[in-house]
Amino acid sequence: MKILVTGAGLLGRSIADELAAGHDVTVLDVVAPATTGAWDVVVGDLRDPDATAKACQLQDVVIHTAALHGIHVHSHSETEFMEVNVTGTFNVLAAARDAAVRRVVISSSTAVFSGHGPVLHDDLPPRGGDVYGLTKVLDESMAEHFRRKHAMEVIALRYGAIWQLVLQFDRPDVQQALGGKRPDLVALAMGGGVTDLRDAVAANIAAALNQGPFDAAYSVLPTTLFDEASPNARDALAQRFPDLADSLPETLATGRVYDAARAERDLGITIAHGQEEFLRDALALV
Predict the structure, then answer these.
(1) Helix, strand, coil percentages, rounded to 5, for the chain
(2) Is 252 domain-assigned?
(3) Residue 211 has what pLDDT?
(4) Is the whole-model pTM more than 0.85?
(5) Rounded Cα distance, 253 and 283, in Å
(6) Hey, how many other C-beta atoms are within 10 angstroms of the C-beta on 103?
(7) 146: which strand partners?
(8) Would you say residue 14 lies in a domain?
(9) Given the DSSP bridges, would you call strands 153-159 and 161-162 parallel, antiparallel or unpaired?
């Protein structure tokens, strides 16, 4: 199968590496990556409809990961976000339609749920908060439009913060995007909004290759450690994981509540890396 992956960032490269063992994979990015894998590279800008159309020709599936992300809100303008995340996504969908691509998988974000909580589920109406969340709401609206009007198979996958990227806070680009601040890893791990890179890759491959049927959007998040009626998070964790009791902060908010059963059932995957793993990683780094 011929598969186009947009974006040579952490997620796009990881997906391409996994798929290249059994498929003909091309990665499209605005600059040539310094290192490549067993996949071809096409240099092109998603904001250029001609370049995007050319890249989509003869492809069976497009996996669209290229975007500006939440960590870029303070380092890039609103105009840049709209041009890359919204115009770029429209160009991908339009090019895929014109090239008769079988399926498109787009990267969205749990940022579309800004203002909802604490219980998170995929039937909530998207309503992004900052400009990043807004662009993802618009992306999902465009995806639904192409599903409905052009009978295209388009699936949006919503991720939380990619844990492996968060742990790279010493990278210059991540430092710049975070304003030089180290993230509160424990709070992030417990917030119910973290996705492991390996689970994000597995979800993309399943959405691209499996038969379905699929709904319009899935949140790729692990089931949280607590339910809506949970007591104090710190006390509950200390009771559940006695070996962590002395390491936990004095106060620890429960965060959002999420159940991964729907995504696991429909996509045919197991979200294997969850809050306990993230929390143990975070406490080891405090």
Answers:
(1) 45, 15, 40
(2) no
(3) 92
(4) yes
(5) 15
(6) 21
(7) none
(8) yes
(9) unpaired
Q: What is the pLDDT of residues 214-247, one digit of tens each?
A: 999 999 999 998 888 776 788 888 888 999 999 9
Domain residue limits at 211: 2-162+195-220
- Quickly tell me which residue has 């490269």 as its tokens: 13
**Please, what's the b/e burial string for 23-37 (b: 16 or more CB within 10 A of its CB; e: otherwise)?**
bebbbbbbeeeeeeb
- By the 8 A CB rule, do 10 and 69 touch? no
Strand (E) or helix (H) holding 78:
helix 78-81
Read off the CATH number of the domain in which 121 is found: 3.40.50.720
Counting the structural domains of the chain, the total is 1
Q: Reduce the DSSP state of residue 29 to 3 states and report it.
A: strand
Collapse the DSSP code of 242 into the 3-class scheme (helix H, G, I; strand E, B; otherwise coil) and give the result.
Answer: helix
For residue range 79-123, list pLDDT tens digits in order: 998 999 999 999 999 999 999 999 999 999 999 998 787 888 888
**Is 148 a domain residue?**
yes
> Which strand (E) or helix (H) includes residue 153?
strand 153-159
Element counts in the chain: helices (H) and strands (E): 12, 9
Q: Is residue 248 part of a domain?
A: no
Contacts of residue 242, defined as CB under 8 A and 6 or more positions apart, other chains included, come to none
Rounded average pLDDT over 186-213 = 94
With a cut of 70, say whether residue 176 has pLDDT above it: no
